[in-house]
Amino acid sequence: MIEPSGETMFTLVSVEVGRVLVHYTQNLSLASVGWSAPIAAVPLLTVLVLLGVFRLKAQWAGLAALGVSLAVALFAYGMPAGLTFDAAGHGAANSVLTVLWITFG
User: Fold this and answer.
1) Half-sphere exposure of 27 (CA within 13 A, CB side)
2) For 54-77, how does the pLDDT look when each residue is reduced to its tens digit (9 = 90+)?
């Protein structure tokens, strides 16, 4: 549950990591949508450029975008490393399971 507690601050009330509830306060260092939105779009642009311009295979473009999104979360938004890698693992597993469901479902 996300509760707004200021103009650029959101408090994540509880995130379950394993069996532990983690309270995480996100302070957006990029104070405006004008800066936050383009930086959040960098992983998507990475996939599009690697697929369209460099003709890289989709699995390698996706893996590169995963790495870029980890870097954006860690360095641009200051997300804690544990939560960053948990979210990345959840997203990767969800993507793989979706592809398997479409392929064999």
Assistant:
1) 1
2) 999 999 999 999 999 999 999 988
Q: How far is CA 50 from CA 35, 60, 73, 91, 104, in A?
A: 23, 9, 20, 20, 27
Which residues on neighbouring strands pair with residue 11, listed in sequence order?
A: 3, 25
Indicate the angle between helix axes 42-52 and 58-71, nearest 10 degrees: 160
From residue 14, how far is each of 24, 61, 81, 84, 86 by CA, in Å? 7, 32, 17, 15, 14
Q: DSSP secondary-structure letter at 78?
A: -
Place of tokens 């690697």: 50
The helix (H) or strand (E) run that includes residue 3 is strand 2-4
Q: Which two tokens stand for residue 17?
A: 């990591």
26-30, 43-47, 57-61: which range is least confident on average?
Answer: 26-30
Select from 103, 93, 82, 85 the least CA-distant residue to 23: 82
At 70, give phi and psi (nearest 5°). Answer: -60, -45
